[in-house]
Specification:
Elements: E1 2-7, H1 15-30, E2 34-39, H2 41-48, H3 55-69, E3 76-80, H4 86-95, H5 100-104, H6 107-116, H7 120-137, H8 148-168, H9 175-180, H10 184-190, H11 193-196, H12 198-207, E4 213-216, H13 221-238, E5 246-249, H14 277-285, H15 306-314, H16 317-329, H17 334-358, H18 361-389
Helix pairs in contact: 3-17, 3-18, 4-12, 4-18, 7-8, 12-13, 14-17, 15-17
Length: 393
Amino acid sequence: MRIVSGMRPTGRLHLGHYFGVLRNFLKLQEEGNRCFYFVADWHALTTSYKNSEELKKNTEHMMRMWLGVGLSPKKSTLFIQSLVKEHSELSLLLSMITPKSWLEWNPTYKDLKYNLLRISELSKELKERVGESLKNFLPSLNLKVHKPQKFQEFMLEKFTSSLIDALFEGLIEGETLRELNTSKKQYYEIDTFGFLGYPVLQTADIIVYKGEGVPVGEDQLPHIELSREIVRRFNRLYGKTFPEPRAILTESPKLLGFDGRKMSKSYKNAIYLDEEEESLRKKVMAFFTDPQKLRRGDPGRPNLCPVFSYHRLLTPKEKTLQIEEDCKKGILGCVDCKKIFLNSLKNFLEPIKERYERVSPSYAWEVFKEGSLKAREVAGKTLEEVREKMNLP
């Protein structure tokens, strides 16, 4: 099977990246699939175009770390998105046939946009308030509606979006924006053509290699379904050209940072794959545990403890079972539990860090540039077929 996937180089890689993405990359590689894995530097610009000075450094870190965790240029095609210009050409051609409404209705687009603007809660509140009014208003329109529930959802989405647009345009009292610490400038700086068209480029990334499987988490399913829609439309218009890519759902544990929130570099709560030993120790000892286990002798609840979730991933099974039993009985204190976690974490990270350090920047660039040339060979053949079917020279 042809597998295609990429990662945005937006900073150092952490445990969440490994267990959420890289572990699955390795598994698919070792199963004998034809894998195309790329550093998605163009995609990084959709939300970080103002901070492009970090892009090359982040790309270099990602390349070295991929090789450090075990991705192999002998088993997978490893490359950089922007060095394969065919991605952009196919994205342009696909944009000609993709209805704008498909992109605007993509829930990931709106969710990410509202999260960046810190207005997700406001949107949710507006929907709840407007929803009741619409229920009473719609029957008075005297319109024949074939699917009342879908019609109501459509109107609710449009009306809520209009209210938010009006807020940013200053048509509604602006105190709300000040309270949310956001602005009209931020609204329009985020709302770019590239941000809206992200799924079209993502579709091009996949189908330029005639990808059949795309390893993703559940939050990316709407993007893959949109890719399938675009493929179906292209095939109807110009003849069967591309397979419909299917999502390969990855089993990604929800990893929490040491503050109890989802691990993320933006929260500054991540444990990085190249974390220094002293920094690692401080972060582990700062980890939140079961809030009801206040003293060493108190019985704990391992299923609610972020530290125990890591034991399941990193500590030998027999030892993990013992930790669970001792925690429930109040025999094992949180400090001792963290010390075991620290030891397991060091045993996991040290081989990765050693391999990462052995990968020189010059070697990483050489590997990925060579991989980009191989990727261009495949992508170029696809574009020749596409141009012919679309009657382009």
